[in-house]
Design goal:
The chain has about 525 residues and is an alpha+beta fold. The protein is built from 17 helices and 16 strands. Among the domains are: about 80 residues, PAS domain (Beta-Lactamase); about 80 residues, 2-Layer Sandwich (Beta-Lactamase); about 150 residues, Alpha-Beta Plaits (2-Layer Sandwich), CATH 3.30.70. Helices cover about 45% and strands about 20% of the residues. The strands form 3 sheets. Strands 1, 2, 3, 4, 5 and 6 form a 6-stranded antiparallel β-sheet that branches. A 5-stranded antiparallel β-sheet has the order 8-7-11-10-9. The chain is flat and about 90 Å long. The N and C termini lie far apart (about 60 Å).
Length: about 525
């Protein structure tokens, strides 16, 4: 952050007063250019901080939704659901409710009829929701769902919900939903997470406000401002100038949630930045009338020194744009020192957000999006050099039984240990990733099918070794696909490797299979 113990620092205002006192007309032009340059830097800094903050809030929202979804998925595996003991299941759900951020759990059949609702004693009449079937997609796709804002049939209040499928064999027989009160999102948009005067808002997929920093009770359920909605529909993340619901002009940063159709936006009052520009320009212009006859030599010298100080900010800004850490500046200007500090903080937040987006928290491996980018890059390189590489898809056999038997901490231990064994079986130039759940993938650079077989066999043996205090025994089923023989795109290679992995599972698990070739 700089050496604050050696260099005495002055404010930009103090420097401008000095310039006005000793400058002629050329100094006035330099001063006006300098003030405007400072304004553009302040505006850029605000945009950078706003983007970093909105990404941080989005990550917090995704984490909260992920935790709720995980709890819901665990509840969906309840034995009482499998055998149809719904009264027992409701009692189980009520006991689990205090440990979740949900307001209630609801079990719905394919027709949309509620079968169990933790807000209503079991056996009493439940609301008829068949005309308002919001969870039909869960039955159609077998995948979780996060809804937009709606009015809860049991409470009559604005509500959000998450839903997961409940399977019986391959068939989805129920949708298990968790009701979420908009107030449960208040910890994300609370004022303590924002600088003074800033406003944060969360909107659902229809553009309806579901959480807000200011006057939440007034605006929840209303549509967000149209300018923001127009940008959200076109681009997942960006910046714009708009007005708040109260009519305050703001610079707005927004981003899309990774785990839902929701978006988060942060508005920074334009007056915070533009007001400083007008104030500085007025002072410079008024002071210039008093000092037109003062010699310009000293003013030009001091102006050049000040401009040089501000120009030092270009390198940190460019470094931040390229994803590098901004260099530390030695400056005697307080504002330059403050902006450089803000750039360092923004860089740290950006690195943290990129780390969360690209790397799995439990295993430290690459996530699916980063892995896809690396494979796409390797496809381009291999096509150019006419070389080969292989994709391995690894699935842990009996992993669900570990979670069911020992709980999720044991499952996390197995995932982390398996990741370490996968890394031990590959070269430093290769890439390992966790695609999700108990499924991993490996990119083996510059290798043919015989070489990939050797690595896969070694990996299968290592991953299948016993895990301390864990039963049943966990093994690995591995599928191999080789570029270009088994596909020329990321999707094709992963699909063929995945199919091969399922062939290994079908053949008895704990073994390696290769993509079928015509």
């Amino acid at each position: 952050m700089g050496d604050s113990s050696v260099v005495r620092r002055f404010s930009i205002g103090q420097c401008l007063v000095g310039l006005v006192i000793i400058s002629l007309l050329p100094a006035l032009i330099i001063s006006i250019a300098f003030v405007y340059h400072s304004y553009t830097l302040d505006k850029e800094r605000v945009n950078i901080e706003a983007i970093a903050l909105v990404r941080h809030l989005s990550a917090s929202l995704d984490k909260q939704l992920s935790e709720t979804l995980s709890g819901l998925e665990v509840l969906a595996t309840s034995r009482s659901l499998a055998v149809g003991e719904l009264e027992t299941f409701q009692a189980h759900a009520i006991r689990a409710l205090p440990y979740q951020s949900a307001t209630n759990f609801v079990l719905i059949d394919k027709q949309g009829q509620q079968l169990s609702n933790t807000l209503v004693p079991f056996g009493q009449s439940l609301p008829d929701t068949r005309k308002f079937m919001r969870f039909r997609r869960v039955f159609e796709t077998g995948k979780p769902l996060v809804t937009d804002l709606f009015r809860g049939p049991a409470t009559g209040k604005p509500t959000l919900a998450m839903a997961v499928p409940v399977f019986r064999g391959e068939e989805v027989i129920y949708a298990l939903t968790a009701g979420l009160s908009p107030s449960s999102l208040s910890n994300i948009t609370s004022g303590k997470n924002l600088p003074t005067g800033w406003t944060a808002v969360i909107v659902d997929g229809q553009g309806t406000i579901i959480a807000r920093t200011r006057e939440a009770e007034r605006y929840i359920g209303q549509k967000a401002v149209q300018a923001l909605l127009d940008h959200i529909r076109v681009q997942r993340e960006g910046l714009l100038e708009s007005v708040t619901k109260e009519g305050t002009p703001v610079f707005t940063a927004y981003t899309h949630s990774a785990s839902s159709d929701w978006s988060i936006a942060v508005g920074v009052p334009k007056a915070n930045v533009v007001g400083l520009l007008y104030e500085a320009l007025f002072k410079v212009s008024a002071g210039a009338l008093l000092v037109l006859f003062v010699g310009g030599a000293l003013a030009g010298f001091l102006g050049r020194r000040v401009t040089a100080q501000v120009r030092q900010l270009i390198a940190p800004a460019e470094a931040l744009g390229e994803g590098n850490a901004p260099p530390v500046l030695k400056t005697w200007l307080k504002e330059v020192h403050a902006v450089n500090g803000a750039l360092e903080k923004a860089s740290a937040k950006l690195v943290e957000a990129q780390q969360r987006a690209n790397y799995d928290v439990i295993t430290g491996l690459s996530r699916r999006v980063l892995f896809h980018e690396l494979v796409a890059h390797q496809i381009a390189m291999a096509a150019r050099h006419r070389s080969q590489f292989a994709i391995l898809v690894i699935d842990l056999d009996n992993f669900k039984a570990v979670n069911d038997t020992h709980g999720h901490p044991a499952g996390d231990f197995v995932l982390k240990s398996a990741a370490e064994r996968v890394l031990a079986a590959i070269r430093i130039s290769d890439v390992a990733a966790r695609l999700g759940g108990d499924e991993f993938a490996v990119l083996l650079n510059d290798i043919d099918l015989p070489g990939a077989r050797i690595v896969a066999a070694k990996m299968c043996a290592e991953v299948g070794q016993p895990y301390a205090d864990v039963v049943p025994r966990v093994s690995a089923s591995i599928g191999i696909a080789v570029f270009p023989h088994d596909g020329g795109t990321v999707a094709a290679l992963l699909e063929n490797a995945d199919n091969a992995m399922y062939q290994a599972k079908t053949a008895g698990k704990g073994r390696v299979a290769e993509a079928s070739r015509a």
